[in-house]
Write a structure and sequence with these properties.
The structure is a homodimer. By secondary structure, chain A is α+β, with helices and mostly antiparallel strands. Chain A has five helices and five strands, in the order H-H-H-H-E-E-E-E-H-E. Chain A has helices at about 5-15, 20-30, 40-50, 55-65, 110-120; strands spanning about 70-75, 80-85, 90-95, 100-105, 125-135. In chain A, the strands form two sheets. Chain A has a three-stranded mixed beta sheet, with no helix packed on it. In chain A, strands 1-2 form a two-stranded antiparallel sheet. At the A-B interface, helix 5 and strand 5 of A face helix 5 and strand 5 of B.
DNA sequence: CTAACTGCAAATAATTTGCAGCCGT
DNA sequence: ACGGCTGCAAATTATTTGCAGTTAG
């Protein structure tokens, strides 16, 4: 399950972070968007609810949420952004057109990883897997 | 197979690009390194053979080689760099410590891709897969 | 010869940091 | 009250672009 704004807020408190109006605003935007938003885009949306917020605060809030494992980064072409983190191991399917994100958890890379590890002698720590494409709504026009 | 410097040079000619001393120097460094090098690191090495080269030229040469499909980008943590592109579909196993890269071609993601496509309605165009870990030589120390 | 190429310096773009004042707990 | 948080402006870092001189083909 993807966490709710309340859930996120409570984690912040538990970890000793203050729950300010700015942070609430950022959290709300992230939660109410299925898209993966770049800091700048997120900033624009947050300003609607909280016009005085600074871009710097958005950056700092995102970094904090990321460190707490509440949100994660996704790649979209050369750009990148943040989206809510469902609990546990997972990956993303990102629409390069609108940025919407779908999660999936079954990546079945264990076997491949095992073999690669043996063949190369690498001690594999993790993997980066993401699909790119066009979501249902973006398949028509350009 | 990974392309040789000669192979790359001949492709440049075929495509109507000029083969300058600077380009040769960049190509040689990329070819003689199994690592994935960031533009700045590559620049340092290229200077040994060609001290007067500008960083800008390195960027432009890398971009050109990338467009021709002769080299490809890899991700290493938050950073990124370039490495030789073996022909055909492939992926990388990157050592986060020293940056050395191993290639592999069999990713078996077709089945997963098919299912995701059906489940989400996405028209999947491609995927991003890369393993991160420590190579044989970097597993000991930090 | 001539268009492509090069290097410099300046321009962008994205993100980080120093700092003084503000505010959640 | 106090330490964390905020916003501004300046600093960084990575990459791109304008331009005049250079050079491969």
């Amino acid at each position: 399950m993807r966490p709710s704004a309340k859930k996120i807020a409570s984690v912040l408190r538990q970890k000793g972070h203050k729950l300010t109006a700015q942070r609430r605003a950022v959290i709300n935007v992230v939660v109410n968007s299925g898209e993966h938003l770049a800091p700048a885009a997120l900033y624009e949306r947050v300003r609607r609810a909280h016009p005085a917020i600074g871009l710097v605060t958005v950056y700092r809030t995102l970094e904090m949420l990321h460190e707490l494992g509440l949100i994660c980064r996704v790649h979209r072409g050369e750009k990148h952004g943040y989206t809510l983190a469902p609990s546990g191991h997972h990956h993303h399917l990102v629409c390069t057109e609108c940025g919407i994100v779908a999660d999936f958890t079954d990546c079945d890379l264990e076997v491949l990883q095992q073999r690669l590890s043996q063949q190369t002698g690498f001690k594999i720590e993790g993997h980066l897997l993401q699909f790119l494409g066009y979501c249902r709504d973006c398949q028509g026009g350009t």
